[in-house]
Design the sequence.
């Protein structure tokens, strides 16, 4: 038993967990987020996908199968989640662009187009078709970006290479935070006589101040600049996470960093505490209510055994899509792999069904039937369900 | 038009061994392979250089051949053979009678053995099941089959031999009933080459009957599929065999940073249509886990199958079939060489080339057993210090392969296939199975202008599809987690899915 009792403890510091936590903290609740470490959001493109399998996200959500957990969120809640996120991000200097009724395209690092709903300011100018006229800047020795992929698909694209002496995206991003480096780089850029209408960069324009760096380059070269998301580690993903994390702390929330939740203390129909392994000794954190936002397999919320799938913290029943040999299709690209349906089934108040717990909620990628890749339900789904779970928790407390 | 003396079809260990032997005896030759070297059964086995112990009771002749070849290969190929030593372990319940027969047969044939106590065995291999009754030490080794083929081809190359990988033989050219050459299609460009020669050697393993049929002959084979699994690290430094008649999952071989365990044995009809069954994977893990208990909890990074081309036999279990080899003279200028095993590839090549020399009425003794394999001086043997010296340029973090290594292979081979780079550098063979480095390797091909516009995304798709065939059988635990992550990278971040095109 811990000395402090929180009103709510959120397990997981991803988009769903931090969204839920921030909302609760702003309503005056004493909230802690417990996380094993950096969330998978740090690996993401930073783009917010609500539902990307159609041109119109609202229609796409409405067309999802009946058992999809997006249907547990009301249209109003989705709108609130959307505008609230935009407002918060703009306030924190990380503006996002997009509409609830129209998906956008973001040019990928292999020259394909990713469909998403909200894009960070640094990707706002990303081309919407293959005809656009772009000039790509890359960096000598950079391991995770090869303009040749893009050139092979976009006819009106060319590239130049700058030697910054660093081969990683994160190393370059930290260089862009240095004014002297930026100035030297801009002088080089000006000598390149770039003729194309837009200038593209791998997403390395700063760790935190990318929007400002982008504006500086645009100002000097007098044309739109945009970032292309790279494979992990991804700077736009980290920027998103840092922004959400700072927002949560500003609202009064506490983060237990590097505290992996390993189990729970239970009594009757209530969860009393989560047990965390931290710094070599077990610990427990008490709260009145808990929100499970630990993610799916990659995030660590779910774990597959030889023949079953388990949730290890609360030992909740997990929807398992058939036998192991049925989890994956033969075709890698099918996006219908049944494993995407695995997860926790919740009721309309986001409480796990079949679990006897009155004060436990679940949201985000750990939910069953999300099929994130197939449906393009990413961070937008996390925003909406994180918000809805928090509201449900508040409702129950009244 | 290309003219040579001997055309070898098939770039497995046998074909590559024949090329080396011909080169050393001064015979012009040309090798044609439909994939990359070691693409068939050669690259889909344990990588075990047998001591002969495995076959000592069922096939004493093969066992003796294995032992002799083991001694030769560890001498001539030190850069592709690791002298691990091996143990046959007896678990509670395993037959004592088999043990007696095993020891007696080894003594008769001349395979050195040493019976050691279970505590001594546990000192040698601490991960062994502590319940083993005893162990018998034998001179097993592990061998890198990819490297073995490359090194054999090095001699061929030095002596002016020709070779074409990614060329599929589509027809055998004939004149007055004799084979005079082959027609082969470049699977990349579609270009058809005609290659003429006096003798054609069919060293195509499981595909031997098909090639023989193109020339009007036949090769009666029994095809037996064997599946294996790879762990993400080395659980033992010695080869571990189960002391019992050959059965499923009874051999574990350490190879570089991983272990391979297998196999199974199931009859198949078509060598191009083999699928791994979940039950095979579970059986191998269960059986290997009886010898090394940690096997049950370790991460399996991939499962794969190879097809054993066995001489036709009446016996039901193909593991009981003869592992000996046979040279078939089709009396029309084509010879087929079938059966055998990786360990005896050099001997098979020697006998094949002896027959060719005889047909040409030439006399020159075989030197393949005496001369060390060419090209070994260039191989570093992977010292960590060397690999870490250039951290900045490492493109495969799992296997510590640098950009320079990749560029060198691309420049040498002009390949457009990531697999070809993997076979020569181990790129993509670690826990992520190419999740990150494939994107990079293809990117480097772009930088070197090997790929034409539009090829890259297709190559990436092909690679991921092929990769998935191997890993989908081992998806649970951390490997499933990693796979979901890689799927997110390619289908999510890079939008390589079906809905990626703009409207």
Sequence:
């Amino acid at each position: 038993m811990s000395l402090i009792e929180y009103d709510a403890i959120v397990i997981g510091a991803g988009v769903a967990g931090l969204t839920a936590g921030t909302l609760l903290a702003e309503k005056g609740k004493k909230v802690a987020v417990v996380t094993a470490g950096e969330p998978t959001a740090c690996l993401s493109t930073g783009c917010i996908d609500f539902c990307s399998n159609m041109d119109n996200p609202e229609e796409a959500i409405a067309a999802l199968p009946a058992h999809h957990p997006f249907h547990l969120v009301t249209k109003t809640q989705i709108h609130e989640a959307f505008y609230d996120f935009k407002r918060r991000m703009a306030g924190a200097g990380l503006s996002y662009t997009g509409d609830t009724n129209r998906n956008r395209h973001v040019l990928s690092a292999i020259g394909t187009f990713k469909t998403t709903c909200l894009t960070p300011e640094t990707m706002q100018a990303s081309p919407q078709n293959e005809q656009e006229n772009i000039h790509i800047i890359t960096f000598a020795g950079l391991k995770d970006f090869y303009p040749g992929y893009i050139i092979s698909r976009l006819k009106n694209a060319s590239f130049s290479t700058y030697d910054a002496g660093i081969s990683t995206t994160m190393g370059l991003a930290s260089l862009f935070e240095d004014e002297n480096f930026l100035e030297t780089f801009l002088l080089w850029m000006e000598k390149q006589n770039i003729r194309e209408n837009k200038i593209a960069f791998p997403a390395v324009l700063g760790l935190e101040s990318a929007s400002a760096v982008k504006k500086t380059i645009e100002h000097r070269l007098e044309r739109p600049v945009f970032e292309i998301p790279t494979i992990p580690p991804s700077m736009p993903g980290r920027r998103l996470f840092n922004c959400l994390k700072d927002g949560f702390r500003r609202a009064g929330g506490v983060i237990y960093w590097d505290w992996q939740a390993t189990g729970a203390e239970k009594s009757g129909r209530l969860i009393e505490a989560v047990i965390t392994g931290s710094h070599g000794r077990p610990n427990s954190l008490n709260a009145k209510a808990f929100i499970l936002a630990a993610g799916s397999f990659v995030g660590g919320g779910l774990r597959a055994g030889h023949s079953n799938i388990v949730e290890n913290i609360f030992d909740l029943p997990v929807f398992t899509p058939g036998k192991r040999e049925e989890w994956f299709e033969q075709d890698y690209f099918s996006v219908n792999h049944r494993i995407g349906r695995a997860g926790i089934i919740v009721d309309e108040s986001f409480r796990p069904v079949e679990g006897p717990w009155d004060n436990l909620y679940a949201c985000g990628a750990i939910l069953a039937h999300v099929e994130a890749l197939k449906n393009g339900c990413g961070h937008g789904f996390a925003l909406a369900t994180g918000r809805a779970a928090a509201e449900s928790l508040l409702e129950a407390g009244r | 038009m290309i003219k040579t003396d001997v055309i070898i079809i098939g770039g497995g260990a046998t074909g590559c061994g024949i090329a080396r032997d011909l080169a050393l005896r001064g015979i012009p030759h040309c090798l044609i392979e439909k994939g990359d070297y070691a693409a068939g059964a050669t690259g889909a086995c344990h990588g075990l250089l047998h001591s002969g112990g495995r076959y000592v009771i069922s096939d004493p002749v093969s066992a003796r051949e294995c032992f002799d070849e083991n001694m030769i290969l560890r001498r001539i190929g030190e850069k592709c053979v690791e002298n691990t030593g091996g143990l046959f372990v007896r678990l509670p319940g395993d037959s004592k009678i088999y043990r007696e027969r095993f020891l007696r047969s080894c003594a008769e044939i001349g395979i050195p053995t040493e019976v050691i106590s279970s505590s001594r065995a546990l000192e040698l291999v601490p991960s062994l099941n502590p319940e083993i009754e005893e162990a018998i030490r034998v001179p097993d080794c592990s061998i890198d089959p990819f490297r073995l083929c490359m090194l054999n081809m090095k001699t061929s190359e030095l002596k002016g031999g020709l070779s074409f990988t990614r060329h599929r033989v589509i027809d055998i050219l004939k004149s007055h009933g004799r084979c005079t050459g082959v027609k082969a299609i470049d699977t990349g460009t579609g270009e058809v080459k005609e290659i003429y020669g006096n003798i054609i050697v069919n060293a195509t393993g499981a595909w031997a009957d098909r090639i023989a049929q193109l020339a009007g002959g036949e090769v009666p084979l029994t095809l037996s599929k064997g599946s294996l699994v790879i762990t993400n690290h080395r659980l033992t430094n010695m080869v571990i065999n189960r002391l019992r008649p050959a059965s499923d999952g009874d051999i574990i071989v350490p190879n570089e940073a991983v272990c391979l365990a297998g196999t199974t044995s199931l009859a198949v009809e078509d060598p191009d249509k083999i699928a791994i069954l979940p039950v095979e994977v579970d059986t191998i893990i269960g059986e290997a886990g009886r010898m090394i208990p940690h096997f049950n909890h370790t991460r399996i990074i991939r499962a794969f199958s190879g097809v054993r081309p066995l001489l036709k036999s009446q016996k039901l279990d193909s593991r009981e079939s003869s592992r000996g080899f046979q040279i078939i003279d089709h009396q029309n200028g084509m010879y087929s060489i079938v059966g055998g095993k990786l360990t005896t590839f050099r001997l098979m090549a020697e006998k094949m080339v002896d027959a060719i020399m005889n047909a040409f009425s030439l006399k020159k003794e075989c030197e393949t057993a005496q001369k060390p394999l060419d090209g070994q001086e260039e191989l570093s043997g992977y010292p960590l210090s060397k690999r870490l010296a250039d951290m900045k340029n490492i493109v495969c973090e799992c296997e510590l392969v640098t950009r320079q290594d990749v560029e060198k292979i691309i420049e040498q081979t002009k390949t457009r296939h990531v697999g070809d780079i993997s076979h020569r550098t181990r790129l993509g063979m670690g826990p992520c199975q190419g999740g990150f480095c494939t994107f990079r390797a293809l990117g480097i091909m772009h930088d070197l202008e090997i790929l034409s516009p539009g090829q890259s995304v297709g190559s990436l798709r092909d690679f991921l599809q092929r990769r998935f065939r191997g890993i989908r059988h081992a998806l649970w635990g951390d490997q499933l987690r990693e796979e979901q992550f890689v799927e997110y990278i390619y289908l999510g971040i890079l939008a390589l899915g079906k809905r990626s095109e703009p409207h």
